[in-house]
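Morning - 5CA inputs below, output right after.
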Amino acid sequence: MHAWPASEVPALPGKGRDLRIHDTSTDGLVTLAPGPVARIYVCGITPYDATHMGHAATYNAFDLVQRVWLDTKRQVHYVQNVTDVDDPLLERAVRDGIDWEGLAERETALFREDMTALRMLPPQHYIGAVEAIPGIVPLVERLRDTGAAYELDGDIYFSVEADPHFGSVSNLDAAAMRLLSAERGGDPDRPGKKNPLDPMLWMAAREGEPSWDGGSLGQGRPGWHIECVAIALDHLGMGFDVQGGGSDLAFPHHEMGASHAQTLTGDFPMAKAYVHAGMVALDGEKMSKSKGNLVFVSQLRRDGVDPAAIRLALLAHHYRADWEWTDQVLADAVARLGRWRAAVSRPDGPSAEALVEEIREALANDLDAPAALAAVDRWAARQDTDGGTDIGAPGVVSRAVDSLLGVAL
Ligand code: 5CA
Ligand code: ZN
């Protein structure tokens, strides 16, 4: 699949700091020191509805990761998937009486437009589940042939017991895992499974549903976790720097994915850090397509909201926090954007050298975007009160805010 156009990332004077970020698997901060090319996999959308503020907040977090790396003069190798065939997508297509492929194409196109408007850096490889099937089949065959997977009425399940490290991403106990598995796409109550948590790798063709040739697996379609693993291993290999997504993906998705990859390769760990963004809520409940309590990026854009203000609204919350979208959040962001634009449109201001370092420091410290915004606020306020005569300063601030925060002033 094609991704979306990249906005330019201006180079800044000096060099950024190495990123210290929270890793779910150790529940602590790790300092990542990638090689010249940092490797990141971020789980993409299931395209059955438009991009909402929760998605945007999660992609914003991983956009910041890349901006910090680019500022350390590294290249970034970024891979993202599109879950363009899965139960929720097929169910929505049936509900609305439309073709599932058309639905996926339409919503993926809208996602690209939203990401472009928000100046999110595009992945170098943007891969759909359907186009990944030829790579998925041999992996499932290998798991089955080595005894790490088994068949149940034509479906193939992964045996979580095959991975000695199973549980090391989320560190949950079996009861919590079972609950989350039932909530998030698993089938712990299906009779005949070796372990209730075992996830499906290949689903045999169902009446009225799309299916593909799976070689010795038979006609069917891939499970969710193996989709991301096949794409990540193909384009990044093992031991990549960051596996990213919202906190609802820690279990089962990232736990199972890591187990698939570790069992396939005999290598551990799949990723150096498992990074999870908090959940954005609306009216007291997690924003989700299944509940329908949504604020869409595209709707705000249609209403004339500047995408830079949307981005500032996201940045005003720490990526790990759970937070609530309200009209006030947006109004505050619009006001801040106005103050910043007025400040950088003046010919001079207080020196910006210290400010650039403050933004760098804040982001390197577990992506503390709110602290970075506060530093820019202080610079703008100082320009109001004390003036300042540094001719280049507004330009430096504008470039730093663009480069490190993805906000075009
Ligand atoms: N296609 C899979 C990943 S392989 C999937 O989870 N798709 S999704 O469309 O449901 O979500 C896309 C990303 O947005 C995931 O990282 C998910 O954790 C995140 N996300 C979904 N809802 C929210 C929310 N309310 N707040 C923050 N992030 C969210
Ligand atoms: Zn995924």
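Note: The pocket of 5CA (ligand 1) is lined by residues 43-46, 54-55, 57-58, 81, 83, 228, 245-246, 248-249, 277, 279-280, 286-288 (CB under 6 Å).

O.
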